[in-house]
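Document type: protein sequence-to-structure record

Subject area: structural biology

Format: plain text, a pair of labelled lines:
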Amino acid sequence: MKNISFISPFCDLLKALTSTSILDRAKKKEIVNYNFLDLFSFSEDIHRRIDDYPFGGGDGMILQAQPIFSAFESITKISDKRRVVFPTPDGKKLDMKLSLDLSEAEDIIFICGHYKGVDQRVRDELVTDEVSIGDYILTGGELPACVITDTIVRLIPGVINNINSAKTDSFYGDLLDHAHYTRPDVFRDLKVPDVLLSGNHKEIDKWKLKNRIEKTKIRRLDLYKKYLKNNNKVE
């Protein structure tokens, strides 16, 4: 069983998001166990304070090192294959390759920042992966931690019923996913492409690949060029 731990001052949000849909299914299947560590419970301050003013001046408050280190050290039996993830806008941009890499870890620990940031000693001594989910700022690290968790958990064998479905998702390879249709085959005079109703799996596969290539070329030219390069194709 993989263990995913969250160090955060606001664990209720994390509990809510991990108790629904695929994330909850993974727990019920006993494939993943979630652990929540409330930073306030680890503060040694008489008022349970977890933040303070930054040395050198400046605006904003900084999460102190002590509560985070204490919470981290309270986690027992951490595997050598652990990954400690700090969601931050100045981290490495999240992509499918990174999600696949993280999904192989036996223990994943998220440190959720707040306010202006965390004491740099946390990042220097504990964190193995600094990860950004986009070029924007959120009020805390809980939502990014859940986004990253969702991308990881769905890739763990046994979590979703058909892992081959995940392998055809956008970004699993160099191409975006193809268009999908379901019943009815005609809706408000809008028809499903005939080839998808033909039963000819060879032609269907050709259509899907062509659709993926065309969509990628239009929407993500960078991925399209990567696809051409990796498959020794020229335009």
Q: What stands out?
A: The longest strand covers residues 83-93.
